[in-house]
Amino acid sequence: MPDARDPVCGLEFPEEQAEALGAFVVHRAGKKHYLCSKACAEEFARRPQ
What we know:
Strand content: 25-35%
Radius of gyration: 10 Å
Number of strands: 4
Number of domains: 1
Oligomer: single chain
Helix content: 10-25%
Distance between the termini: 28 Å
Number of helices: 1
Order of helices and strands: EEEEH
Largest sheet: 2 strands, antiparallel
Structural class: alpha+beta
């Protein structure tokens, strides 16, 4: 069962494989967010915290 979810597009993937799969990692408010692509990471960065 996937346990990481991209907050922008909703793609789910195993958290333990996120970095190996090339996910972008953003830390915000003490939480780690995994994003599937540079485009999703940029969109997430534009959103208010």
